[in-house]
Specification:
The complex is a heterodimer. By secondary structure, chain A is α/β, with parallel strands linked by helices. In chain A, 44% of the residues lie in helices and 10% in strands. The chains are: A alpha/beta, B alpha/beta.
Chain lengths: 330, 353
Amino acid sequence: MQVFPQKNRSRGNALSVSFYQKLYLIRRVEERIRDLYGEDEMKTPMHMSRGGEAIAAGVLEAVGSKSQVFGTYRSHALYLAKTQETDKFFAEMYGKATGVAKGKGGSMHIAFPEAGFMMTSAVVGTTIPVAVGAALANAYKKNGKLVVSFFGDGALNEGVFWESLNFACVKKLPVLFVCEDNDFAIHSRVQHRAGHKPIAEVVSTFYCHTGESATTDVHEIYEKTKDMIEKMRVSGMPGFLHFKYYRYLEHVGVNEDFEAGYRSRKEMLPWLERDPVTLQRKRLLKIGLKEKEIADAERSINQQIEKSIEKAKKAPFPAKSEYKTDVYAE
Amino acid sequence: MPNKVASPKRITYVEAIALSLAQEMERDPSVFVYGLDVTDHKKIFGSTKGLEKFPEKRFFETPLAEDAMTGVGLGAALNGLRPVHVHIRVDFLLLAMNQLANMIAPAHFGSGGKLKVPLVIRAVIGRGWGQAFQHSKSLQSIFAHIPGLVVVMPSNAYDVKGLLASAIRSDNPVIFLEHRWLYWMEGKVPVKPYTIPFGKAKVVRKGKDVTVVATSWMNVEAYKAAEILEKKQGVQVEIIDPRTIYPLDEAAIVRSVQKTGHLIVADYDWEFCGFSAEVAALISEKCFGILKSPVTRIAFPHTQCATTRPLENEFYPNAVDIIRAIEKKLKLKPTNLKGEEFYSWENRFKGPF
């Protein structure tokens, strides 16, 4: 996807432009989901990435396109950052035969293994050991591929996180654990769930590298990740990164939920002030891009998305016989 | 290991497992074996003996973390390896039910057929010696209930070697259940690698009077019962070993019942909601008009297995139970069992059927 006109830009500026494309794509895709969800044609529970876009975009840029990624039920941002593909994405949301999993997966199980976006899951923590196993296979084959395992802070309470971290450290596997921490496990805050010191401190007692940040700046997330994988490359040990962000919308669904009473809009305001997408747009203006250039690029992303939505709506549902296929591999 | 000889050789069930593992690892560099205690001096009752010749990455022990280690198998399988995960007791596999039921079983389906899971999970089942309720289960009914899993229960040395090779070469996740007492059983086993297709039952013994569908160790008990009944009552018992619980060779069972008109299901698992109920339902649907007696089920009662020997003996069904059930079905006088020897921990079964 080339939505900004090609120019001779410095490496840093080219990166800024590329980041913005991804951040805007993710933001816009989810805005359109919010607009259209009420039509009740996308019959799949939506766990929105809104507010956390920079983590997906920054980390995935740093680890490179050959890396393999595992995610959670909240993985729209990861999918789009990894693939920048919207046809199969929307078709999957609409449950159509042209979807990435023929509609069998939906939003909570979105994956694109051909592109290295391996698997997501609707049960908290459950892709973490799978990512570690994928890393074991990469080490076994000595193919140099890095695996990134994304999960939320709720997963830190699951035994399987600790089992997986421990095994990855025992075997010195090329896996980067990325905790996207929005402070809530559904609606439960960390003080009700964590009987331990800050997570990066606890994990640092394992034989791995750790890092943490509360930034919303995609460049800082990118740099932090770059540093981490360099450390991992030198030592051969796994890495753990802890990123704070704020989930703007409800746990599941496309709306805000400040009226529910478990959190206040006031709490979101400081995060909104440094919203990752707005922040990056400002950066583009600062490094000399014209408002019109940016608006044109946004328009062409919008067009890509509208085309994908249109195609998805028109696409056929899978044949009814598909409900019994793919249970076993031939 | 009997690699030197090419002709079939009498080896034990456990030797057949070890031989099959070694041969598959030699054939395909993507096969690896891992699990708790697989590399120690006991080598899972000897079933992983000889694998120490492979490099560590292909044969390694793990932390006590059944849940994560099962997920690791899934991840390695997704990336093109063929892991064989070993559990010395099937009961420990319950710690990994999330990975089995939520991740491994639906992976192929949920990705629209893109992800493949060539993973084998070996687990030792059944009766030991005072093993009570946490080291004695079989659980094939639970595993077979979940679409996406293949469930295999080899009952002899020949089958275990071929079925294990098939399991390792399969692109589907396979639960491979091995009864502890079968490990001593000897059989004629070709040294050359071979496979046995899933979903093909074996007629262990031909007969015209009554059909016994037996799983795993119950084949040994059924065979003993059949020998005694033939000798003392002139009754011919046909024994069908399904070998794979899923896929199930329904046709072979139906064919036999069409011939005999009588069916006993001798299953090595709990009776309630178990595999025996599945077979009974199958025969009710397919052979309703021709049954000469209602289907009889012989399986674990709806209770837990005790440690103490007299209660343990009550829990596990055996050849005598099968004999008595057949007598009732065929309206025979009670067979005199005086002088007959039955199997126990001390009186091991060794020969082929």
